[in-house]
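Input (structure):
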């Protein structure tokens, strides 16, 4: 009679620290040992045998079940819940996941006076469609400004003048153009952003005024990223915030509603600081002027030069770009972009990579092994790190740059040249906005005003600035 061998614990275990599950290899090893104890240690169960393959199938079944149990267990905690489970959990705190919004742009419609345009649609240079209001009539002046809404939700961008095509021709309607860049919409709120908002929401009943303001502002309908800074000293602080004042920075949302949220919770006598003024009224009808900052969005551009290895495919490159975009788009207000941290998503590692790809970290690790990213091959730059003056021609080793706050001696930079090539140089001195570098611009090369500058280093953002990144901001070089 064969001796039975008790199986090791193959199921999940719940303890004071949470839930845990054995690894696939541990499960397979336990099943293998049990199988050998029943049929003898000399039984052949290598991976190329039928019995070995069956044991692997059983181990995978147990492992899949365990992972489902872990996901279900963690789904009851906002800290670990994902997707629909997280959306359900945050309702306890009285908040909901923000749905996607559509980009908007003010467009000038031109044509013959009196021309009616019903359900008009225009298009931009990238073939994105934009819907006009249901009914538009061109006035006697021959032009009218209306708001066009992108047909597809999410971050649809259009620079000034890009929306210039009439997609629904109408007799008498002749021109369309957007004088200013479109206001990008937002994708469905990510799990990371929703978790952060849920954590803030628990301060709705906070006992300190600052916590109450933070929570009140964060739960204003339609608001995006937000931050609050307090200067409780008797002198102006390093951010320029006056003494005994607060500064609130907000992205999107209705300014009047946000100002009312601040006024409702701030202590009497506490000053507010910002570039936007809004007058609201207290319950007695007394006017209160609230100052705050509209978030200044700074585009973060990156250039990633990878060395393809065996097994690399172009679709892996798309995953790299999406991971970097997701990472930079998840920055808090005022968060600096540290170059060392950018290597994680660029190497398909971390939450940004898994959330943007829908793959597990183990699957991404396999893809990451198909390329190499040397430290010297990653550059990033602010959208306002642009060359001014010029043109700068062969032999020049000094250029003026609009924003040099993130540049320093010894840092490597790359600068776009007029022929499509790039100057790669090392900064040797910075005086004012003039950056000296080596080597000088090569023969036959020119750098014009407006050329983008990227640095192999960290980027500094001010307290009222927020990083913004779209797919077109990431240049992947193979």
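Output (sequence):
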């Amino acid at each position: 009679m064969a001796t039975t061998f008790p199986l090791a614990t193959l199921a999940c275990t719940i303890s004071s620290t949470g839930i845990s599950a054995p690894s696939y290899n541990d499960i397979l090893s336990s099943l293998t040992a049990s199988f050998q104890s029943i049929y003898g240690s000399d039984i052949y169960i290598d991976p190329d045998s039928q019995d070995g393959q069956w044991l692997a199938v059983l181990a995978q079944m147990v492992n899949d079940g365990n992972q489902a149990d872990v996901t279900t267990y963690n789904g009851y905690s906002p800290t670990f819940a994902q997707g629909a489970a997280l959306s359900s959990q945050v309702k306890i705190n009285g908040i909901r996941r923000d749905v996607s919004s559509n980009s908007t742009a003010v467009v000038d419609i031109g044509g013959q006076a009196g021309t009616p345009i019903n359900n008009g649609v225009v298009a931009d240079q990238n073939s994105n469609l934009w819907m006009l209001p249901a009914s538009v009539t061109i006035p006697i002046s021959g032009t009218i400004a209306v708001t066009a809404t992108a047909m597809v939700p999410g971050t649809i961008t259009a620079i000034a003048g890009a929306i210039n095509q009439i997609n629904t021709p109408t007799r008498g309607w002749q021109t369309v153009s957007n004088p200013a860049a479109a206001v990008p919409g937002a994708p469905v709120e990510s799990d990371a952003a929703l978790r952060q908002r849920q954590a803030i929401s628990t301060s709705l009943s906070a006992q300190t005024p600052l916590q109450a303001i933070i929570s009140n502002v964060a739960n204003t309908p339609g608001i995006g990223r937000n931050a609050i800074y307090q200067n409780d000293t008797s002198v102006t602080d390093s951010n320029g915030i006056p003494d005994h004042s607060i500064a609130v920075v907000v992205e999107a949302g209705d300014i009047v509603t946000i100002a009312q949220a601040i006024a409702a919770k701030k202590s009497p006598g506490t000053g507010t600081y910002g570039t936007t003024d809004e007058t609201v009224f207290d319950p007695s009808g007394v006017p209160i002027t609230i100052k705050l900052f509209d978030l200044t969005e700074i585009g973060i551009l990156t250039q990633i030069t990878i060395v393809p290895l065996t097994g690399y495919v172009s679709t892996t490159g798309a995953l790299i770009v999406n991971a970097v975009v997701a990472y930079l788009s998840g920055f808090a207000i005022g968060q600096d972009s540290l170059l060392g941290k950018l290597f994680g998503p660029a190497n398909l590692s971390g939450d940004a990579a898994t959330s943007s790809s829908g793959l597990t970290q183990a699957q991404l690790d396999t893809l990451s092994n198909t390329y190499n990213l040397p430290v010297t091959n990653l550059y990033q730059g602010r959208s306002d790190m642009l060359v001014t003056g010029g043109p700068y021609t062969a032999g020049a080793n000094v250029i003026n740059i609009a924003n040099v706050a993130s540049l320093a001696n010894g840092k490597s930079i790359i600068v776009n040249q007029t022929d499509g090539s790039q100057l790669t140089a090392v900064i040797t001195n910075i005086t004012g906005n003039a950056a000296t570098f080596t080597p000088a611009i090569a023969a036959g090369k020119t750098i014009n005003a407006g050329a983008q500058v990227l640095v192999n280093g960290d980027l500094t953002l001010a307290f009222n600035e927020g990083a913004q990144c779209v797919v077109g901001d990431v240049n992947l070089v193979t």
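Notes: The CA atoms of residues 236 and 351 lie 38 Å apart. DSSP finds ten helices and 27 strands in the chain.
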